[in-house]
Design goal:
- The chain has 107 residues and is an alpha+beta fold.
- It has a single domain, classed as Fe-S cluster assembly (FSCA) (GMP Synthetase, Chain A, domain 3, 2-Layer Sandwich), CATH 3.30.300.130.
- The protein is 26% helix and 17% strand.
- The protein contains three helices and three strands.
- It has helices at residues 7-18, 64-73, 98-103; strands at residues 36-41, 46-51, 80-85.
- It has a three-stranded mixed beta sheet with strand order 1-2-3, covered by helices on one side.
- Helix 2 links the parallel strand 2 and strand 3 (80-85).
- It is globular, with a radius of gyration of 14 Å.
Length: 107
């Protein structure tokens, strides 16, 4: 019998993994920075992540989404992962967590 995985627990595991990925220009992880707009997990344990970048001209526009996808795929329960980039709404400092603002001396 196939083991049933709680998608909420898997979602928490995904967020933990996202918090290990840092924007190379800002010493804050991409989750606290507000670059992750949505994390969706379906019943087949396929993950879709909707994220943005700090700007369309971001130097890591090619590599950061691939890093996110690879790290999420490295989670044992995840069968597949897809990262979609959007600029709607555009990223702003308002999307940063209090923790990120504190880290960057913005509070």
């Amino acid at each position: 019998m196939e083991q049933v995985i709680d998608t909420n627990l898997l979602g928490e595991e995904i967020v933990k993994k996202l918090k290990t990925i840092y924007d190379p220009e800002i010493p804050v992880d991409i989750y606290e920075l507000g670059l992750i707009y949505d994390v969706m997990v379906n019943e087949d344990y396929e993950v879709k992540i909707l994220m943005t970048l700090t700007s369309p001209n971001c130097p890591v526009a090619e590599t950061l989404p691939l890093e996110v996808e690879e790290k999420i795929k490295s989670i044992e329960q995840v069968k597949d992962a897809d990262v979609e980039i959007t600029f709607d709404p555009p990223w702003s400092k308002d999307l940063m967590s209090e923790e990120a603002k504190l880290e960057l001396g913005m509070l």
